[in-house]
Amino acid sequence: MDTQPAGGQHPRPTPRVVVGILRAVRGWLIAVTGGVLLFGCYLGVSAETDPGRQLPYFVSGGLGGLALVFLGSALLVADQIDAAAKGRGRLDRQVEELHTLIVAAASVPAPAVTTVADQAAGGQNDGGLFAVPAGRTYHRRSCEMIASKPAQPVDSAQIAARGLTPCTICEPKIAA
Ligand SMILES: [Zn+2]
């Protein structure tokens, strides 16, 4: 509508910059034009003393001016609502990005802590090494051989001191 006026007098599209400026000030332009028309109507009515000749000024200038003032005001309000909506959209995106960052930051340490705990507990052995106090072998925590026995955790130093041998069923490994 802005770039193609009725009648096709200006086939070339208006440059985007001009369109942007017109879009920004059109509400004010229309409202001010309406104000000028109203003022002209007031002058015309003041100059005429015959009520019959005042009527055309009211109809042409007064109603037209009022309509333009209302239209300009509506455009200004619409532009403000549009700008507010754009600002709200930008805020939503920022909150979303922030939320993504927080979730990512919160989820990173958990696996790292688990990995460190696994390594401290004996590498690939799930939950560390265990041995029955009177036993001669050491096991993984999940081994069937110690499932119903009072097994206690042992480290590589205790295994060497007691001369424990690895269980042939669960085949535990001492971390290097
Ligand atoms: Zn075992």
TrEMBL record:
KW Transmembrane helix (keyword) present: yes
Transmembrane annotation, as ranges: 25-45, 57-78
Keyword annotations from UniProtKB, A to Z: Membrane, Transmembrane, Transmembrane helix
Protein name: Uncharacterized protein
